[in-house]
Design goal:
Helices cover about 0% and strands about 45% of the residues. By secondary structure, it is mainly beta.
């Protein structure tokens, strides 16, 4: 699994005919683009990449799910979301995005794992901009 792009934005443009998606007050969008290659021997479940645990610098933590209405394509990301991509079989790969809305009042981290108990990897998120 490779994180190929990462950006924070308070507004996600949605193309010529749609209104932009705006983050809730004191929140920001985090757009993540992944390339997931299955190097194992069974189908690889990408669902854990669509939910994360957010933990702020002060210790506040909460479960964050993928923003269904979020689309980062106008920021230069691939259009496909991981939610819509098939789970790659051995030797296959998929590329897709995941969008989260996280607090922007302090720095924090998005933690991803397969069991939500042990972090597989973290992505640091900056605080106020």
């Amino acid at each position: 699994m490779t994180l190929t792009d990462y950006r924070q934005a308070d507004v996600l443009p949605q193309g010529e005919f749609l209104s932009p998606e705006t983050a809730d007050p004191q929140n920001t969008f985090v757009c993540l683009e992944f390339r997931v290659k299955n190097t194992g021997s069974a189908d690889f479940d990408t669902a854990p990449l669509t939910q994360a645990r957010w933990t702020g610098k002060d210790g506040q933590t909460k479960q964050i799910d993928h923003e269904l209405s979020g689309d980062c394509a106008e920021l230069g990301f691939v259009k496909e979301t991981l939610l819509n991509e098939p789970d790659p079989r051995p030797g296959e790969f998929v590329t897709g995005t995941t969008v989260f809305m996280v607090p922007d009042t302090q720095p924090g981290a998005l933690e991803f794992s397969t069991d939500m108990e042990h972090a597989t990897f973290k992505i640091e998120v900056s605080g106020p901009r």
